[in-house]
Amino acid sequence: MAPGVRRIPVTEDGLTATLFLPAGNGPFPGLLDLWGGGGPLVEYRAALLASNGIASMALNYLTPKTTMETGKMVDNQYFEKAYKFLQQHPQICDSRIAMLGLSLGSAFTLKMAVYSQVMKLRCAVCIGGSHVQPVDGSVEQVLDYMNKNAEKTRFSENNEMIWRDLLLPIPTDPSFKVDVGRLQCPLMLVVSEDDQNWPTSESAKDMKEMMEQAGNSHLLTILSYPNAGHLIEPPYTPHVRISMFRTVGTLEKMMALWGGRTVEHSRAQEDAWKKILIFLRENLYSSTNPGAATLSHL
């Protein structure tokens, strides 16, 4: 957190979240930040974004208080409530709100960006994720869809779990992938070419083809990094090729293979963070939505 950034816990309307406001009075552009499948509230990226002038709210959607109390996972309205909270905040500009999703969080970012009648996003960023999911599915249904494909799990020669095949091959059935051809806001995809957790390269290729066929590919920016592994994080976050991991709702720990090589992955994190910030600033601060071509000068 930069000097002056304010950290504000959010519990209104059943939300479990933390809002980070930049120094000053605003109004600021806003962003809804979704982490991946690890479960708890993860705040560091939202704090960094606020330090760069964007009011950002880290949202717990897998283990929020309401889920822990009732045992029921949240539905898509939960994300809309979070968006409305940002939209109604007196220090946030209600027409300049973005969404950023990492890993599993990118699945819901894409879904809400395309289908929500409430969320009018200025732009979206998806890091290490996929559009493959039941279109009408809630959080629970999306997770169930992946669990049903558990037999596709592979193991490395060192018995490390590889999950990238769970969503492969990319389905042709449109009911099992977000129709990105309907997307109306700029989208940035951050792709790791050695991602062993999600089929990010294959998903990005399919999304590009879908958007080209629909005539909205001008909204798409793809950052693709050879030899980078899953979880492209902000700069100087350590590269972890293999780690212990526990899926949400289970007590079982396992060794997961994320992929990537340290030097290439680390350089990807530096490059991607710089370009994500440029993309967000150009789409959140400008009077128009310039689309994907805004990074061409880089």
UniProtKB/TrEMBL annotation:
GO biological process: acyl-CoA metabolic process; fatty acid metabolic process
UniProt xrefs under PANTHER family: ACYL-COA THIOESTERASE 17-RELATED, ACYL-COENZYME A THIOESTERASE-RELATED
A molecular function GO annotation: fatty acyl-CoA hydrolase activity
Listed name of the protein: Bile acid-CoA:amino acid N-acyltransferase-like
SUPFAM superfamilies: alpha/beta-Hydrolases
Domain of life: Eukaryota
InterPro entries: AB_hydrolase_fold, BAAT_C
